[in-house]
Amino acid sequence: xxxxxxxxxxxxxxxxxxxxxxxxxxxxxxxxxxxxxxxxxxxxxxxxxxxxxxxxxxxxxxxxxxxxxxxxxxxxxxxxxxxxxxxxxxxxxxxxxxxxxxxxxxxxxxxxxxxxxxxxxxxxxxxxxxxxxxxxxxxxxxxxxxxxxxxxxxxxxxxxxxxxxxxxxxxxxxxxxxxxxxxxxxxxxxxxxxxxxxxxxxxxxxxxxxxxxxxxxxxxxxxxxxxxxxxxxxxxxxxxxxxxxxxxxxxxxxxxxxxxxxxxxxxxxxxxxxxxxxxxxxxxxxxxxxxxxxxxxxxxxxxxxxxxxxx
Length: 311
Ligand SMILES: Cc1cc2nc3c(=O)[nH]c(=O)nc-3n(C[C@H](O)[C@H](O)[C@H](O)COP(=O)(O)OP(=O)(O)OC[C@H]3O[C@@H](n4cnc5c(N)ncnc54)[C@H](O)[C@@H]3O)c2cc1C
Hints:
By secondary structure, the protein is an alpha+beta fold. It folds into three domains: 2-82, Uridine Diphospho-n-acetylenolpyruvylglucosamine Reductase, domain 2; 89-214, 2-Layer Sandwich (Uridine Diphospho-n-acetylenolpyruvylglucosamine Reductase, domain 3); 216-311, Uridine Diphospho-n-acetylenolpyruvylglucosamine Reductase, domain 1. Helix content is 29%, strand content 23%. It is built from eight helices and 18 strands. It has helices at 2-12, 44-56, 105-114, 130-136, 178-181, 197-214, 244-250, 279-297, and strands spanning 17-22, 34-39, 61-63, 70-72, 77-82, 89-93, 96-100, 117-118, 139-140, 143-144, 149-155, 161-165, 184-191, 193-194, 257-258, 261-263, 271-273, 306-308. A five-stranded antiparallel sheet has the order 6-7-13-11-12. Strands 1-2-5-3 form a four-stranded mixed sheet. Strands 15-16-17 form a three-stranded antiparallel sheet. It is globular and about 60 Å long. Bound molecules: flavin-adenine dinucleotide. Flavin-adenine dinucleotide binds at residues 28, 63-70, 84, 101, 126-129, 131-133, 135-136, 138-140, 178, 184-185, 215, 217, 221-223, 306.
């Protein structure tokens, strides 16, 4: 693979290509092994160049955003990990705001509040980037971010770009078409309405306060591990809410642990890392929760988090 290394170096300079670098610090779980290559791109054009070089040499590409919804294997990720950084936010017109993939959701919320653009304020406190939020259709308080997407700019793995209306993104609970097509998100345009910054700030603060009250924010985690059961697919026993956290809780698993991983005593759907957890500990604890919930309630929990690398 020295040809690929040479091509990356020629395109980006040797100081920007990192070899065999640990990814743990780039995830909110704080676990995970090394990437063969890690490149932090600064523009969409750089992302396209990197995709093209990898395609030419048959190197696998993994996109990493804020690392807040992933569990990276202890053995790491083979191939190239692209981590887009920076990016800008523009007001397209009174009704639309465009943001590049690496813009953080919190940065975008702050920008919108400052500019009196209503829509995303309730997502305040959601870790991660626009890229990751669109990939998994980030949700809060019963609403999903896809509802606000007017259009997106995508690149396929051959580097061809296209502008796609939000309605063609196959948004669903924790889902977008990116999970099937493996397209890369370059930017997203959100529908906004005029809003009073003070009122928007109050909504954002209420979301932040809710998170602080209900989530173990002081300990590394990846947010909710499991999707909530789907009333159309899953039968939950009477009297039990359609909530993965409630099922884990009622299965008596809150506080239980494997190695350095533990089901949060605060929130049954969060697994936290006490600082010494491996990805394998977390993975085994996830399997334990799934098995107990299946056994006790007959419900098969599905992951919300994304596994990366080989387990
Ligand atoms: C404390 C805490 C609270 C959370 N609360 C919420 C919540 O309220 N609601 C919610 O929905 N989630 C929540 N999450 C989960 C997480 O914040 C979201 O899923 C977030 O949108 C992930 O974004 P990210 O940039 O970190 O993506 P990553 O974790 O880096 O990646 C997730 C997936 O997106 C893909 N991806 C990233 N960027 C791109 C791109 N440009 N193009 C294509 N694919 C891409 C990755 O390949 C990966 O498959 C929480 C997490 C934590 C730690």
